[in-house]
Amino acid sequence: FSQESGDETDLDRQVKNFLENSRNNWRDMNVPEADGQLLYDIIVENNYTRAVEIGTSTGHSGIWIAWALSKTGGKLITIEINKRRYLEALANFKKAGVLAYIDVQLADAHELVPKLEGPFDFVFSDADKSWYINYFKNLDPKLEPGACFVTHNVSRHNNYNFYEYVSQLPNYKTTLDGRGAGMAISYKKAD
Ligand SMILES: C[S@@+](CC[C@H](N)C(=O)[O-])C[C@H]1O[C@@H](n2cnc3c(N)ncnc32)[C@H](O)[C@@H]1O
């Protein structure tokens, strides 16, 4: 991992150990490591502190996000509809040492996302793809200028309609990153 540095904390060691040991064990549509690393870097570089994740699954991306938030003093709300995955995520967050940075919600994001109280500065959207534009519209009013909305599995060949939608918004700057499974990274420039 690229977080090597002289001032490694006990938490850094615990998270790295967990990620290294579970590298080949993610079975529930979890993000590839490259995408986890990218989420971590975006949060730390921008000093984000109020994060939302839609689609926890068993917690791979959530661990990277929460690890980054442990550096910025932030907190993550993550939402999962499937009870088995939610319970596994809870156990994984605990083992990785990042549970203190996460509010893990077992809920239908279609219902919970519109009710979330903002403002937020970072969103990772990775649940049901047919709802991507709705999640964006729900959260946009709760994002301040400078915030970042990252959407997974978006590329020229995948969920491109979402890219077409966000890229025509005048107050967002959206780029596609293809290092992992494809991410649309949208920075809010103005209200
Ligand atoms: C691609 S996986 C998420 C992977 C996760 N971000 C990771 O890297 O470990 C998508 C998850 O979204 C969940 N999901 C689908 N529809 C949902 C909804 N309406 N509300 C909440 N979660 C939902 C699925 O159960 C699934 O676990």
TrEMBL record:
Keywords: Methyltransferase, S-adenosyl-L-methionine, Signal, Transferase
The keyword Cell membrane belongs to this UniProt entry's keyword annotation: no
GO biological process, any: methylation
Entries under Pfam families matching the protein: Methyltransf_3
Coiled-coil intervals, chain numbering: none
GO molecular function ontology, one term from the record: O-methyltransferase activity
Gene3D superfamilies tied to this protein: Vaccinia Virus protein VP39
Name of this protein: Putative O-methyltransferase
